[in-house]
Amino acid sequence: MTAKEKEKGFATRAIHVGQEPDPLTGAVSVPIYPTSTYVQEEIGKNRGYEYARVSNPTRDRLEENLASLEGGIGSKVFASGMAAINAIATMFQSGDHVICGHNLYGGTPRLFNQVLANFGMEFTYVDTSDVNKVERAIRKNTRMVFVETPTNPLMALSDLQAITKVCHARKVEVVVDNTFMSPYFQQPLALGADMVVHSTTKFLNGHSDGLGGVVVCTKKEQLEKLAFLQKAAGAILSPFECWLILRGVKTLAVRMEQHDRNGRAVAGFLANHKKVRGVFYPGLSDHPQHELAKRQMSGFGSMISFETGSLKNANKMLRKVRVCSLAESLGGVETLISHPATMTHAAVGPDGRKKIGITDGMVRISVGVEVVDDIISDLDQALDAI
Ligand SMILES: Cc1ncc(COP(=O)(O)O)c(C=O)c1O
To answer: Which residue from 154, 179, 348 has its CB within 8 A of the most atoms of ligand 1, so it is best to mutate?
Structure first.
C-alpha cells in the first residue's frame, strides 16, 4: 500500500484500490481476463504476462485491493481458503514445527494432520487464548504459530499483540486466519502478525457465490514464495472468481456494519431466551474476553454460537427455520445456520470435539443483513419446537 493510499478510509480503498477504471475503455468495473495465455512479440518480449497460472490482470487487481484492506505489502489469492492455508504451510519444510489453535475451523487440522504430517511437518495444538501455553509449546524447530481469533465455533479470542511479542522474541512467525472478522473489524498485521489468511468465500466476497482464499504478506520474501507456489502448485483463483470478490468487497464496509448491528441484536435475543442454555458472542458483556474484544476488534461481527442442550433439540429447531438457511459456510448476506458437530467440525471426531467443548447441541449462526426482526421472529418460532 502506498503512503497516499494509506491516507484514504477503508471503504474508499475497498472501492478504488486495484479497482481503478480500465485504461483501455474507462469501464468502472475491473475487466475479467478469461485467457490461458498471452501473445508475445518476440522471444522474451511480452507485456508482463506469459501464462495465466503465473499471472492474470484481474487477479493482480484483486491482490492489490486485498493487500490494501489488510495493510500488507501485497497478497496472493488461491482457489479456496484451504488452498491458501495449504500454500502457507508449504512455505515451510519437512521437520518444521507449527503451533496451532486447538479450536480451528475443522478443515485446517484435517489438512495438517491427515496430509501435511505425512510429509514430516509437526503440529502441536494449544489453547492460543492463553499466551503462556503458546510460549511453552515453542521448540527449536517451531516456525509458525497459526491462530484463529475469534475461534470457530466457540468464539474464543487470542491476544494477538501478546502472542506476536513472545513469538517474535523466538523468531517464530504468526499467521492469523481473519475470516470471521474480515479486515473491516480486525487488522492482525497492525497488531504485529506476519501474515493474514482468509477464506474469501465468506465475508470478503459476501454473497455465497464463489470460493477463494488469500494470504496477505508483510515481507517481500513471503510474497515471492507464495507467487512461486501459485506457479509451481497451481491452486490459483480463476479470473471470474477474482472479479466476484472485487465486486463483493466494494460493499464490505456497509455489509459489515449491518452484520454487526444484526449480530448484536440476535445475540441479545438469544441470551434472554429461556430455551437457550448459553450464547458465545464476544459482544456480550459476560463473554470472558469481552474487554479484549473491545480492544482488539472494532466491531463484534455476526458470528454467534449457542447451546440448545442436545442433538435432538438442535435438529428440532434447525428443521423449523425459514428465514435462516440450514447450511455450511458463513459471511454471506443471507443468514446461515449450521450444526458444527456434524458439519464444520465432523472431521475433528467426537473425542476431539469433547476436548475443545463443541457439544452436539451447539448451533452456529452467521447473521445476515436481512431485517433483523425477521431473523429474530424466525429463530423464536424455531426455538418453540424444542
Ligand atoms: C475460519 C475458516 N478458515 C478457513 C476456511 C476454509 O475456507 P474454504 O472453504 O474457502 O476453503 C473456512 C471455511 O469454512 C473457515 O471458516
So the answer is: 179
Give 118 Cα–ligand 1 centroid separation in angstroms. 22
Tell me: the pLDDT tens digits for 339-349? Answer: 999 998 998 89
pLDDT (mean) for 61-83: 98
* Degrees to nearest 5, angle at CA 185 with 179 and 188: 65
177 catalytic, yes or no? yes
From 202, 225, 264, 364, active-site residue: 202
Cell numbers given for 348: 475433528
pLDDT digits (tens, 9 = 90+) for 261-315: 999 999 999 999 999 999 999 999 999 999 999 999 999 999 999 999 999 999 9
DSSP states along 167-228: HHHTT-EEEEE-TTTHHHH--GGGGT-SEEEEETTTTTT-SS----EEEEESSHHHHHHHHH
CA end-to-end span of the chain: 51
Residue 319 among the catalytic residues: no
The rounded distance, in Å, linking the Cα atoms of 351 and 354 is 5
Q: Which residue has the cell 433483523?
A: 372
Question: Helix 372-383 vs helix 311-320: angle between axes, to the nearest 10 degrees?
Answer: 130
Is the C-beta atom of 87 inside 6 A of ligand 1? no
Q: Which amino acid is at 233?
A: A
Q: Has 105 been annotated as catalytic?
A: yes
Q: Which of 33, 105, 125, 184 is catalytic?
A: 105
